[in-house]
Amino acid sequence: MSSELELIERDDGTLALPTNADPAMAGAQVLGFRRYAVALDVGGRGEDPSAMCIIKAERRPFLTGRGFEQALTPLRLTTVWTDTAKLAEAVDVVDWSVSVLRKLKNWRFCFDATGMGAPLEGLYQQAKVPATPMVMTAGATFTRDGSRVRVSKNLLFENAATCLENGTSLIAHDLPEKDELIREARSVEFKETSAGNLTLQGGGRGHHADRWVAHCLATFLETHIAPQRMSVGKLHGYF
């Protein structure tokens, strides 16, 4: 039996192998997914731009070769789009990000709610756009309070770097801003704070790592706070 079958993508983003009305095949069906993690790094005024990143997240069902048994491939994250824009007003940042989201389906969205990004939470609520505010903090942990997430910048950067190193995360070979994104990632280095703590900073003096921060936010959205699917089944013939 071939393990290479054309996948069916449903409207909700789930991926399934065709059953061809075979009850045995349907009984062994495992659902994967294809969705987009979208993140916004909110810039300041002047030369600090806002940046967006889109990561395609996939787990694909396949036949293992043992009868009708199915399994899912490991999580694969592919950075497929990044862009920056110098926008002085919060409403303009929201309009820009919403215009991007409207071109996608099966997306999840988060934004940097630290500093300049704090007022955006209410604006997204008014626009009826589901959004996860992420507040970047010191330390090395993250917490959730309702829809709001507090996560250390160290954890954000280290998580994204680990995913790139172990192959979970890839950058699309034809991404127009690929070289710039890689340059920003390589610019990240440890800096000592006034309190004597080490923190990861990107961009270097006079530069920014806005694309990289957006990339880290989108990666974290999938690796740490992605929705989980729960399945319920019954055991037959168990003694």
Explain the overall architecture.
By secondary structure, the chain is an alpha/beta fold. The protein has a domain at 37-53 and 78-223: Nucleotidyltransferase, domain 5, CATH 3.30.420. The protein is 25% helix and 31% strand. It is built from 6 helices and 14 strands. The strands form 3 sheets. Strands 1, 2, 3, 4, 7, 8, 9, 10, 11 and 12 form a 10-stranded mixed sheet that branches. Strands 5-6 form a two-stranded antiparallel sheet. Strand 5 (61-63) and strand 6 form a beta hairpin. Helix 4 crosses helix 6. The radius of gyration is 20 Å and the shape is globular. Mean pLDDT is 86; it is low at 230-239.
Short description, anyone?
With 239 residues, this protein is of the alpha/beta class.
Question: Any key phrases for this structure?
Answer:
239 residues; ten-stranded mixed β-sheet; two-stranded antiparallel ribbon; globular
What's the helical proportion of residues?
25-40%
CATH class of the domain at 37-53 and 78-223: Alpha Beta
- Mean of residue pLDDT? 86
Rg of Cα set: 20 Å
Strand content: 25-35%
CATH architecture level-2 label of the domain at 37-53 and 78-223: 2-Layer Sandwich
Number of helices: 6
Strands, total number: 14
Ends distance:
32 Å
